[in-house]
Amino acid sequence: MHELDHLEWRLAxxxxxxxxxxxxxxxxxxxxxxLVDQPRQPLSLPEPRGKNSMIGESVIQRAAAMExxxxxxxxxxxxxxxxxTFDL
Length: 88
Known about the structure:
- The chain is mainly α.
- It contains two helices and no strands.
- The protein has a domain at 1-36.
- The protein has helices spanning 2-37, 57-77.
- The chain starts with a helix and ends in an 11-residue tail after the last helix.
- Residues 34-54 are annotated as: Disordered.
C-alpha cells in the first residue's frame, strides 16, 4: 500500500508540473496576442544635423579639395605596375 501511495503522489506531482507548463504556455500565448493587438507607435528619428553656421562654404570646399588631393596621392603611392611598357 505504501508504494501505491508513493506512485499516486508522484503522478499528482507530475500532473501539477504539466498543468504549470500548460498554464505558462497559455499565459505566454495571451501575452503575445496582447502585444500583437496593441497599436504601434511610429518611430521618432533624431533630426539630422545641419552644417555648422560657423563654418563658411569656402572652408568646406577647401576641405573637400584637400580630401580629393590626399586620395589621389594615396592612390599614386599604392599603385602597382602592371608590367606594361609603352616605349617605342
